[in-house]
Write a structure and sequence with these properties.
With 296 residues, the protein is mainly beta. It has helices at 73-79, 125-132, 143-147, 210-215, 274-277; strands spanning 11-12, 36-38, 40-41, 47-53, 56-62, 70-71, 85-90, 97-109, 112-121, 138-140, 149-153, 158-162, 171-174, 176-178, 181-188, 194-198, 206-209, 226-230, 237-249, 252-262, 270-272, 280-285, 290-295.
Length: 296
Amino acid sequence: MSSVPSVIRMRFMTLGYLIGVGFVLSVHAEAAQPQTYPVTLTQGSRLLVSARINGHPVEALLDSAAEATLIDPGFARTLGLKSGTTVTAEGSGDAAFSAELVKGVKIEAFGLTLKDQTVALTPLSDVGQRLLHRELQVVLGREIFDAARLRIDIEGHTVTVLDRRSTPAGVQLQLTEEHGVETVPAQVEGSGSLRATFDLGNGSGVLVSAVCASQLHLLTDGRPVEQSRGGGLGGETARQLFKLHTLRLAGREFHELPASIDARPSASDLNVGIDVLRHYVITTDFAARSVWLQPR
Protein backbone atom coordinates (compact mmCIF):
# COMPACT_ATOMS: atom_id res chain seq x y z
CA MET A 1 0.00 0.00 0.00
CA SER A 2 1.34 3.41 -0.90
CA SER A 3 0.11 6.93 -0.37
CA VAL A 4 1.21 10.44 -1.24
CA PRO A 5 -1.19 12.75 0.64
CA SER A 6 -1.48 16.11 -1.04
CA VAL A 7 -2.79 18.36 1.72
CA ILE A 8 -1.50 21.61 0.33
CA ARG A 9 -2.19 23.34 3.61
CA MET A 10 -0.52 26.56 4.66
CA ARG A 11 -0.27 28.35 7.95
CA PHE A 12 1.65 31.62 7.89
CA MET A 13 3.64 31.90 11.07
CA THR A 14 5.08 35.43 10.89
CA LEU A 15 3.32 37.69 13.40
CA GLY A 16 0.58 39.69 11.72
CA TYR A 17 0.28 37.34 8.75
CA LEU A 18 -1.66 34.42 10.15
CA ILE A 19 -4.05 33.59 7.34
CA GLY A 20 -7.53 32.44 8.24
CA VAL A 21 -11.06 33.62 7.53
CA GLY A 22 -10.02 37.24 8.02
CA PHE A 23 -7.36 36.93 5.32
CA VAL A 24 -9.76 37.79 2.49
CA LEU A 25 -9.73 41.51 3.09
CA SER A 26 -11.88 42.50 0.14
CA VAL A 27 -13.90 40.07 -1.94
CA HIS A 28 -16.16 41.30 -4.70
CA ALA A 29 -17.96 38.28 -6.11
CA GLU A 30 -19.83 38.92 -9.33
CA ALA A 31 -21.77 36.15 -11.05
CA ALA A 32 -24.61 35.96 -13.57
CA GLN A 33 -27.34 33.32 -13.38
CA PRO A 34 -26.15 30.06 -11.79
CA GLN A 35 -24.03 28.13 -14.25
CA THR A 36 -22.17 24.85 -14.17
CA TYR A 37 -18.44 24.69 -14.88
CA PRO A 38 -16.28 21.68 -15.74
CA VAL A 39 -13.70 20.25 -13.37
CA THR A 40 -10.95 17.79 -14.26
CA LEU A 41 -10.39 14.91 -11.83
CA THR A 42 -6.84 13.69 -12.39
CA GLN A 43 -5.74 10.07 -12.09
CA GLY A 44 -4.13 11.07 -8.81
CA SER A 45 -7.48 12.32 -7.48
CA ARG A 46 -6.83 16.04 -7.68
CA LEU A 47 -9.26 18.67 -8.96
CA LEU A 48 -8.10 21.02 -11.71
CA VAL A 49 -10.21 24.02 -12.73
CA SER A 50 -9.99 26.87 -15.22
CA ALA A 51 -9.16 30.24 -13.64
CA ARG A 52 -7.74 33.63 -14.51
CA ILE A 53 -5.20 35.59 -12.52
CA ASN A 54 -5.12 39.28 -13.50
CA GLY A 55 -6.84 38.23 -16.71
CA HIS A 56 -4.31 35.51 -17.61
CA PRO A 57 -5.84 32.03 -18.08
CA VAL A 58 -4.42 29.16 -16.02
CA GLU A 59 -5.37 25.65 -14.95
CA ALA A 60 -5.38 25.67 -11.16
CA LEU A 61 -5.47 23.02 -8.47
CA LEU A 62 -8.60 23.50 -6.35
CA ASP A 63 -7.80 23.25 -2.63
CA SER A 64 -10.30 24.14 0.10
CA ALA A 65 -7.61 23.80 2.80
CA ALA A 66 -5.13 26.22 1.20
CA GLU A 67 -5.47 29.35 3.30
CA ALA A 68 -4.56 31.56 0.36
CA THR A 69 -4.25 31.23 -3.39
CA LEU A 70 -0.68 30.24 -4.25
CA ILE A 71 1.13 31.33 -7.39
CA ASP A 72 4.43 29.99 -8.68
CA PRO A 73 7.02 32.79 -9.03
CA GLY A 74 7.59 31.93 -12.71
CA PHE A 75 3.92 32.49 -13.51
CA ALA A 76 3.93 35.57 -11.28
CA ARG A 77 6.65 37.10 -13.47
CA THR A 78 4.44 36.44 -16.51
CA LEU A 79 1.69 38.35 -14.73
CA GLY A 80 4.05 41.21 -13.92
CA LEU A 81 3.52 40.81 -10.17
CA LYS A 82 6.06 42.63 -8.05
CA SER A 83 7.80 41.24 -4.99
CA GLY A 84 5.87 41.33 -1.74
CA THR A 85 6.36 40.83 1.96
CA THR A 86 8.28 37.65 2.79
CA VAL A 87 6.74 35.39 5.43
CA THR A 88 7.39 31.92 6.78
CA ALA A 89 4.72 29.30 6.19
CA GLU A 90 3.94 25.77 7.32
CA GLY A 91 2.82 23.16 4.80
CA SER A 92 2.19 19.45 5.08
CA GLY A 93 5.81 18.50 4.47
CA ASP A 94 8.77 18.26 6.84
CA ALA A 95 10.07 21.81 6.46
CA ALA A 96 8.73 25.33 6.74
CA PHE A 97 9.00 27.40 3.57
CA SER A 98 9.07 31.03 2.50
CA ALA A 99 6.35 32.85 0.59
CA GLU A 100 5.81 36.40 -0.57
CA LEU A 101 2.44 38.05 0.01
CA VAL A 102 1.38 40.25 -2.92
CA LYS A 103 -1.66 42.51 -2.79
CA GLY A 104 -4.07 43.80 -5.42
CA VAL A 105 -4.51 40.63 -7.47
CA LYS A 106 -7.72 39.75 -9.35
CA ILE A 107 -8.84 36.10 -9.26
CA GLU A 108 -11.55 34.76 -11.58
CA ALA A 109 -13.10 31.28 -11.47
CA PHE A 110 -16.57 29.74 -11.89
CA GLY A 111 -17.91 33.03 -13.25
CA LEU A 112 -16.86 34.83 -10.06
CA THR A 113 -14.55 37.83 -9.91
CA LEU A 114 -12.58 38.38 -6.69
CA LYS A 115 -10.88 41.77 -6.74
CA ASP A 116 -7.99 43.16 -4.73
CA GLN A 117 -6.86 39.81 -3.31
CA THR A 118 -3.63 39.06 -1.47
CA VAL A 119 -1.94 35.95 -2.85
CA ALA A 120 1.18 34.01 -1.82
CA LEU A 121 4.08 33.48 -4.21
CA THR A 122 5.99 30.27 -3.58
CA PRO A 123 7.61 27.63 -5.82
CA LEU A 124 5.11 24.95 -6.88
CA SER A 125 7.26 22.88 -9.25
CA ASP A 126 8.13 20.21 -6.67
CA VAL A 127 4.50 19.80 -5.59
CA GLY A 128 3.37 19.70 -9.22
CA GLN A 129 5.82 16.99 -10.19
CA ARG A 130 5.23 14.81 -7.11
CA LEU A 131 1.45 15.08 -6.97
CA LEU A 132 0.40 15.80 -10.54
CA HIS A 133 3.43 14.72 -12.58
CA ARG A 134 3.13 18.00 -14.44
CA GLU A 135 3.69 21.74 -14.13
CA LEU A 136 1.63 23.50 -11.47
CA GLN A 137 1.32 27.29 -11.60
CA VAL A 138 -1.60 28.10 -9.27
CA VAL A 139 -3.35 26.58 -6.27
CA LEU A 140 -6.81 28.13 -5.98
CA GLY A 141 -7.43 28.45 -2.25
CA ARG A 142 -10.20 29.23 0.16
CA GLU A 143 -11.01 32.69 -1.21
CA ILE A 144 -13.30 31.13 -3.79
CA PHE A 145 -15.07 29.12 -1.07
CA ASP A 146 -15.51 32.25 1.04
CA ALA A 147 -16.98 34.14 -1.92
CA ALA A 148 -19.87 31.93 -3.00
CA ARG A 149 -22.06 28.89 -2.38
CA LEU A 150 -20.66 26.11 -4.56
CA ARG A 151 -22.09 22.71 -5.46
CA ILE A 152 -19.21 20.37 -6.21
CA ASP A 153 -19.85 17.04 -7.89
CA ILE A 154 -16.48 15.30 -7.97
CA GLU A 155 -17.69 12.22 -9.84
CA GLY A 156 -19.75 14.39 -12.19
CA HIS A 157 -16.74 16.66 -12.81
CA THR A 158 -18.71 19.87 -12.25
CA VAL A 159 -18.93 22.93 -10.00
CA THR A 160 -22.08 25.08 -9.91
CA VAL A 161 -22.43 28.50 -8.27
CA LEU A 162 -25.71 28.46 -6.33
CA ASP A 163 -28.09 31.14 -5.11
CA ARG A 164 -27.52 31.47 -1.36
CA ARG A 165 -31.29 31.69 -0.85
CA SER A 166 -31.69 28.08 -2.02
CA THR A 167 -31.79 25.11 0.36
CA PRO A 168 -29.02 22.63 -0.49
CA ALA A 169 -29.68 18.89 -0.51
CA GLY A 170 -27.89 16.64 1.94
CA VAL A 171 -26.82 16.65 5.57
CA GLN A 172 -25.78 20.08 6.83
CA LEU A 173 -22.50 20.13 8.78
CA GLN A 174 -21.32 23.12 10.76
CA LEU A 175 -17.85 24.37 9.94
CA THR A 176 -15.39 25.05 12.75
CA GLU A 177 -12.07 26.75 12.04
CA GLU A 178 -8.89 25.16 13.39
CA HIS A 179 -5.50 26.72 12.61
CA GLY A 180 -6.97 28.63 9.70
CA VAL A 181 -8.68 25.69 7.95
CA GLU A 182 -12.28 24.52 8.08
CA THR A 183 -13.28 21.29 9.83
CA VAL A 184 -16.46 19.19 10.00
CA PRO A 185 -17.57 16.60 12.59
CA ALA A 186 -16.74 12.94 11.96
CA GLN A 187 -16.27 9.70 13.90
CA VAL A 188 -13.85 6.81 13.55
CA GLU A 189 -14.12 3.35 15.08
CA GLY A 190 -16.72 4.19 17.70
CA SER A 191 -15.06 7.41 18.84
CA GLY A 192 -16.91 10.48 19.98
CA SER A 193 -17.17 13.44 17.62
CA LEU A 194 -13.81 14.39 16.09
CA ARG A 195 -12.88 17.34 13.88
CA ALA A 196 -11.96 16.54 10.28
CA THR A 197 -10.34 19.08 7.97
CA PHE A 198 -12.47 19.52 4.85
CA ASP A 199 -9.69 19.19 2.28
CA LEU A 200 -10.38 19.04 -1.45
CA GLY A 201 -6.62 19.26 -1.98
CA ASN A 202 -6.05 15.88 -0.34
CA GLY A 203 -6.18 13.17 -2.99
CA SER A 204 -4.63 10.26 -1.12
CA GLY A 205 -6.59 8.97 1.83
CA VAL A 206 -7.59 10.03 5.32
CA LEU A 207 -5.02 11.69 7.55
CA VAL A 208 -5.13 11.07 11.30
CA SER A 209 -3.25 13.29 13.74
CA ALA A 210 -0.62 11.56 15.86
CA VAL A 211 -2.47 12.67 19.02
CA CYS A 212 -5.79 11.23 17.83
CA ALA A 213 -4.16 7.98 16.68
CA SER A 214 -2.54 7.56 20.10
CA GLN A 215 -5.79 8.23 21.96
CA LEU A 216 -7.64 5.65 19.84
CA HIS A 217 -4.72 3.15 19.86
CA LEU A 218 -4.81 2.95 16.08
CA LEU A 219 -1.13 1.97 15.75
CA THR A 220 -0.95 -0.38 18.72
CA ASP A 221 -4.01 -2.62 18.34
CA GLY A 222 -2.38 -5.11 16.00
CA ARG A 223 -3.51 -3.77 12.62
CA PRO A 224 -0.80 -3.74 9.88
CA VAL A 225 1.23 -0.54 9.71
CA GLU A 226 3.50 0.27 6.75
CA GLN A 227 5.90 3.10 5.94
CA SER A 228 5.76 5.43 2.95
CA ARG A 229 6.40 9.01 1.90
CA GLY A 230 3.92 11.86 1.57
CA GLY A 231 3.54 15.59 2.07
CA GLY A 232 2.88 18.67 -0.04
CA LEU A 233 4.37 22.12 0.43
CA GLY A 234 7.48 21.89 2.58
CA GLY A 235 8.69 18.72 0.86
CA GLU A 236 8.23 15.04 1.44
CA THR A 237 7.76 13.51 4.87
CA ALA A 238 7.65 9.98 6.29
CA ARG A 239 4.15 8.52 6.74
CA GLN A 240 2.86 5.57 8.74
CA LEU A 241 0.14 3.88 6.70
CA PHE A 242 -2.72 1.73 7.98
CA LYS A 243 -6.45 1.25 7.50
CA LEU A 244 -9.32 2.76 9.44
CA HIS A 245 -11.87 0.05 10.10
CA THR A 246 -14.73 2.58 10.08
CA LEU A 247 -15.24 6.28 9.44
CA ARG A 248 -18.64 7.94 9.76
CA LEU A 249 -19.36 11.25 8.01
CA ALA A 250 -22.75 12.92 7.47
CA GLY A 251 -24.62 9.72 8.32
CA ARG A 252 -22.63 7.47 5.97
CA GLU A 253 -20.18 4.85 7.18
CA PHE A 254 -17.04 3.85 5.29
CA HIS A 255 -15.03 0.68 5.93
CA GLU A 256 -11.33 -0.19 5.63
CA LEU A 257 -10.19 3.22 4.43
CA PRO A 258 -6.50 3.86 3.68
CA ALA A 259 -5.12 6.32 6.24
CA SER A 260 -1.81 7.78 7.36
CA ILE A 261 -0.45 9.70 10.32
CA ASP A 262 -0.06 13.48 10.24
CA ALA A 263 2.52 14.25 12.92
CA ARG A 264 2.33 18.04 12.72
CA PRO A 265 1.26 19.73 15.98
CA SER A 266 -1.26 21.87 14.05
CA ALA A 267 -3.05 18.87 12.52
CA SER A 268 -6.77 18.43 13.17
CA ASP A 269 -7.97 15.05 14.47
CA LEU A 270 -8.66 13.93 10.90
CA ASN A 271 -8.33 15.17 7.35
CA VAL A 272 -10.83 13.96 4.75
CA GLY A 273 -10.20 14.53 1.07
CA ILE A 274 -11.20 13.32 -2.36
CA ASP A 275 -11.20 9.60 -1.49
CA VAL A 276 -14.07 10.19 0.94
CA LEU A 277 -15.73 13.32 -0.46
CA ARG A 278 -16.18 11.89 -3.96
CA HIS A 279 -18.98 9.73 -2.51
CA TYR A 280 -21.11 12.86 -1.96
CA VAL A 281 -22.48 15.76 -3.94
CA ILE A 282 -21.04 18.63 -1.90
CA THR A 283 -22.38 22.12 -1.28
CA THR A 284 -19.98 24.54 0.39
CA ASP A 285 -20.72 27.92 1.90
CA PHE A 286 -17.81 29.00 4.06
CA ALA A 287 -19.37 32.43 4.70
CA ALA A 288 -22.44 30.67 6.13
CA ARG A 289 -20.15 28.36 8.13
CA SER A 290 -21.68 25.22 6.57
CA VAL A 291 -21.21 22.40 4.11
CA TRP A 292 -23.90 19.99 2.95
CA LEU A 293 -23.04 16.40 2.00
CA GLN A 294 -25.55 14.45 -0.10
CA PRO A 295 -24.58 10.77 -0.46
CA ARG A 296 -24.41 9.66 -4.08
